[in-house]
User: Which sequence fits this backbone?
């Protein structure tokens, strides 16, 4: 039945494959003369995803504190957890549609959308990490007369810092991929270049943009992998 | 008697210096990038009234649209069908490829090299590009979205499946070989029963992931509920859009819970045996 809904047909597919291959032929060779135009959008994409990861991690940290059962009261915890679950169910692309409608085009709504998009995933992971902090450590610091803020500063942050950083680095990778997609709806960056090259039927130019994206995604993966491994090995030694 | 203040505790410690260094570098990068991108975090608060205005226009959600407009129902079906078929076909193909790509079942190392390479290339290509190519090849509509999801599922879950096959306990495999079984028989009687639970559990997860991306793909020509939301936003019918967004959130949450439940069920059965 779902085949009918999707208009699946082998005829269309077999014709589509021929068309598709013919079309892929049009995408080659990549138009490298457009490369200088791609550099700024590519850098912009990285900047968007970096800033979004930074602000997003910061925001998620507060949501995580509010959502961890061992430091925040029950009512705050339920509110924060509910918010994070709702956010996880909301695709980033819809957040950006809302923000573009409200704030206009440009990198600004992109950064905000991705930063909000972080809260669902990072907030959840952080608050789970906070809940796993040894209760005895917290209690012993509290019995020394520490206030809640001091507990957070001297127990929680040092304990969860490695997992916090490695999750944030992973999210940076995800954000780089997403910012390509979001660019096409108006956040600027390299995604916008791809989408508009397709719309203007300049497929060879689009191929160049795609290659740049592959490079970006690959590099962000390497960089985040490298730092994650370094952090993990550091914490093991201590 | 002079007062000596070169007390060692007053000198900033190495750790503090290091921390201050990291913080200041981070702060400089963030502030610098914000300036380059012309991004002022305070704008979020000063421009907040735009957001509040928008939200004001969106409330109350026009829930009636869910049953008044016939196309909404079919577009929801389209999204679900896209995700379902993408998972089925992608999962099926990924399964086949996984056997070719895993070291212990692959007929030849060349296959392993080729398929692993193809899958890792696929994982790097953004979905946006794949859907744009498919829209040109087979036209707008859920069929293009379905094909995109199929390809995405192959790339992501083919690797997971292949890794699962490689992690199979080698002793039963050897024992089956020792009875004179052919490679196909070993796969059928020894490897498949071992990896089946993790495959099914992963497929439920794949459906979850695909449902989310099906909504995003709708905007770029995949049809379905994502397209309806995009259209409602473009035509400034914000009340309709909010109703659809709320509906999407509920839909995704339900499927997430459902797939979590089934996954836990399957994996529990596995550990009990």
Assistant:
């Amino acid at each position: 039945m779902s085949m009918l809904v999707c208009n699946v047909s082998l005829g269309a597919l077999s014709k589509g494959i021929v068309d598709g291959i013919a079309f892929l032929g049009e995408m080659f060779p990549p138009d490298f003369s457009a490369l200088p135009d791609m550099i700024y959008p590519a850098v912009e994409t990285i900047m968007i995803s970096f800033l979004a990861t930074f602000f997003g991690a910061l925001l998620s940290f507060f949501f995580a504190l509010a959502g961890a059962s061992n430091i925040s009261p029950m009512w705050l915890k339920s509110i924060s957890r509910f918010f994070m679950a709702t956010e996880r169910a909301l695709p980033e692309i819809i957040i950006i549609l809302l923000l573009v409608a409200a704030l206009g085009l440009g990198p600004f709504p992109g950064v905000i959308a991705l930063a909000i998009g972080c809260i669902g995933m990072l907030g959840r992971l952080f608050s789970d990490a906070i809940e796993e902090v040894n209760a005895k450590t917290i209690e012993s610091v509290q019995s020394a007369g520490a206030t809640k803020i001091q507990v957070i500063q001297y127990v929680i942050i040092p304990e969860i810092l490695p997992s916090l950083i490695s999750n944030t680095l992973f999210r940076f990778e995800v954000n780089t991929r997403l910012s390509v997609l979001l660019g096409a709806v108006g956040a600027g960056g390299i995604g916008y270049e791809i989408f508009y090259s397709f719309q203007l039927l300049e497929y060879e130019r689009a191929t160049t943009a795609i290659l740049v994206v592959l490079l970006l995604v690959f590099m962000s993966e390497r960089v985040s992998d490298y730092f994650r491994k370094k952090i993990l090995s550091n914490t093991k030694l201590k | 008697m002079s007062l000596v203040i070169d007390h060692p505790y007053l000198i900033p410690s190495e750790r503090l210096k290091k921390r201050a260094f990291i913080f200041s570098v981070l702060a400089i990068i963030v502030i610098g990038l914000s300036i380059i991108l012309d991004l002022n975090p305070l704008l979020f608060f000063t421009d907040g009234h735009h957001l509040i205005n928008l939200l004001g226009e969106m409330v109350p959600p026009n829930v009636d649209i869910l049953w008044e407009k016939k196309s909404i129902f079919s577009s929801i079906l389209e999204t679900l069908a896209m995700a379902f078929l993408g998972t089925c076909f992608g999962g099926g193909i990924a399964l086949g490829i996984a056997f070719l790509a895993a070291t212990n079942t692959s007929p030849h190392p060349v296959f392993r090299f080729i398929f692993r390479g193809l899958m890792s290339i696929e994982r790097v290509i953004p979905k946006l590009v794949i859907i744009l190519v498919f829209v040109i090849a087979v036209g707008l509509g859920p069929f293009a979205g379905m094909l995109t999801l199929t390809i995405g599922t192959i790339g992501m879950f083919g690797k997971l499946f292949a890794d699962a096959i490689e992690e199979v306990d080698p002793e039963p495999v050897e024992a089956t070989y020792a009875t004179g079984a052919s490679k196909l028989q070993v796969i059928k009687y020894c490897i498949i029963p071992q990896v089946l639970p993790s495959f099914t559990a992963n497929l439920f997860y794949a459906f979850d992931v695909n449902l989310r991306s099906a909504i995003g793909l709708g905007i770029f020509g995949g049809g379905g509920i994502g397209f309806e939301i995009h259209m409602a936003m473009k035509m400034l019918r914000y009340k309709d859009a909010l109703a659809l967004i709320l509906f999407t959130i509920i839909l995704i949450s339900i499927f997430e819970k459902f797939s979590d439940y089934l996954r836990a069920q399957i994996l529990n059965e596995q550990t009990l045996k």
